[in-house]
Each structure stands twice: as C-alpha cells, then as structure tokens.
Amino acid sequence: MAVQQALVLAARRMTEAGIDGAARDARVLMAHVLQIDASRITLVAPDMLNIDAKTAFDACITRRIAREPVSHILGRRSFYGRDFTVTPDVLDPRPETEILIAEALSQPFSSVLDMGVGSGAIVLSLLAEQPLAKGQGSDLSEKALAVAQDNADQLGLSNRVSFTQSDWFEPITGLFDLIVSNPPYIALDEMPDLSPELSFEPRMALTDEADGLQAYRIITAGALAHLRPRGRILLEIGPTQGAAVADMLLVQGFKAVRIVPDLDGRDRVVCAVAPQSNSTQ
C-alpha cells in the first residue's frame, strides 16, 4: 500500500469515529512512523509502505480512534518553539498557555517558581528565554516531576532549575521575582462535558474536585510570603474565572491586578504585582 492510500484510509476511519482534523492527525502520525518531518509527507506520498511501517501506522490510528491524544502517541508536544516529552502523568502544554509565557517575559526576572509544574513546559520555556534566570518547579506528583526533570535534561537547563515534591507552598522556601502557575481549574460539575481525550491526562491536573477555584485560594493566600517586593504573579485561569481570581489577589494586597485575554478574546491569565513593602516577610 502506498503512503497516500494509507493516509486516505486512516483519515476516513478517524472521521467516521468523530475525530476532528483527521487528515492532519493522519499526516502527523505517518511522519512519526516514517521518522520524517510532517512537511515531507507530500514528497513520500507515492512511496510504498513496508509491512513494519504499515503495522506501526495502523496501531497509531487505532490508538487515536480510541481518543488517545496525538501527543501521547508521539510522546512529545511542541510548546513555545520547543518539544517537550509528555506522558499520561502530566498535562499536555497547550497553545493558550503561551499567553502566560509571553506576559511573563514582558519584564525581566532572575528567579521563578512554577507551582504544579507538570511537564515543566512553563518554567523551562521561561528559563530558555531568560538565560540568566534560575527556577524552581513544584508538583505533588513524583511521576510528573520525573517528566519535568527529563525535559530539563533534554533542553540543557538542569543546572538552572530544581524540582520539589510539594503540596503547593509546602515545603517551598525563599523569595522569587516571579510566581507562575497553571493549576487545576475545571469544576467537578464540568468534568462530564470534557472531550474524551482529556481522560488520558491526570485528573489531579484538571480538576480540584470542587468549584475549580480551590488552588487559586491557596496560591493567592500564600504568594506574598514567597515574592520579593514588586515581584509578579501570573495565573492561568478558565475563561469564566477572571473576576474571582482577580478579587482574591486584591484581597491579599496585590497591586496592578489585571486580566490578559487569549487570542480568542477569552480571559486567560490573571497578573498582579506584590506591594513595594511586603508585610508578610
């Protein structure tokens, strides 16, 4: 069977299974099997697939039809211009989180704490873009921390970042110029409406099993004790949570609180600045 014929049949199978973007997924998975860049698929389309490649491609398509994310099949996800290893133990880094990265990089910083670090995509992207900065990532999951460390090693950033198993601020010490987090913000009653692909991601990274705001209450209450004066905090949020999270920061004494939208105009990141004189320190 030729590559093109296999692509057509795979796209048809996935479309019938209700998968959006089936043709795109087929091309990406074929490129993965053939170990080529997806941009070269058109060049090899007339070529014949050998038995091993056909078997491997069919296995990938079967996994995708079962709604396993393409990133999990590939074992990697692109984020802010770099590839990150992903597994079922971490939340996939998503394009909308790049809004947080861009906002964080709009001002200099020398130290950053990423809470709920997952794959490490946020803190490692920031360190890669800010060569003199150092970072710390915390997560409750040992398996997630192992993925983050692997990504740090692959990107050559292990000498500038450390990872700590932590339940939010326990046992974090020290002061930072910047605190960032993409915490679990999906409310429990919203979970049944999520796409099937999310069932392959760690539940603890998606929901707080409550109203979706529990992590923000903890982070906003403890952040000032870990920020230098005029330090910044950036929190990714769900599109309906901007006002609630902004109010939490204001109550704690943060200044310059604002909400940054994503490219679709939805609230995406809440930013704030610690006061010049931090009474919690």
- CATH topology of the largest domain, by name, is Rossmann fold
What's the story with the biggest beta sheet? 7 strands, mixed
What's the helical proportion of residues? 25-40%
- The CATH homologous superfamily of the largest domain is named Vaccinia Virus protein VP39
Task: Enumerate how many helices there are, as a single number.
Answer: 10
Radius of gyration: 21 Å
**Assembly status:** single chain
Overall average residue pLDDT:
95
Principal-axis shape: elongated
Secondary-structure-based class equals: alpha/beta
Output the CATH class name of the largest domain. Alpha Beta
Q: Spatial order of the strands in the main sheet?
A: 5-4-3-6-7-9-8
Helix and strand succession? HHHHHEEHEHEHEEHEHEE
Low-confidence stretches: none
Strand tally: 9
Would you write up a description of this structure?
There is one protein chain. The protein has helices spanning 3-16, 22-34, 41-44, 51-65, 70-74, 98-104, 121-129, 142-154, 214-222, 242-251, and strands at 76-79, 82-85, 111-115, 134-139, 161-165, 176-181, 227-236, 255-261, 267-273. With 281 residues, it is an alpha/beta fold. It has 2 domains: 3-66; 76-273, Vaccinia Virus protein VP39 (Rossmann fold, 3-Layer(aba) Sandwich). The chain has a 7-stranded mixed sheet, sandwiched between helices. A two-stranded antiparallel ribbon has the order 1-2. β1 (76-79) and β2 (82-85) form a beta hairpin. α1 (3-16) packs across α2, α1 packs parallel to α4 (51-65) and α2 (22-34) packs antiparallel against α4. The longest helix is centred in the N-terminal third of the chain and has 15 residues, at 51-65. The protein is elongated, with a radius of gyration of 21 Å. The model has no long low-confidence stretch (mean pLDDT 95).
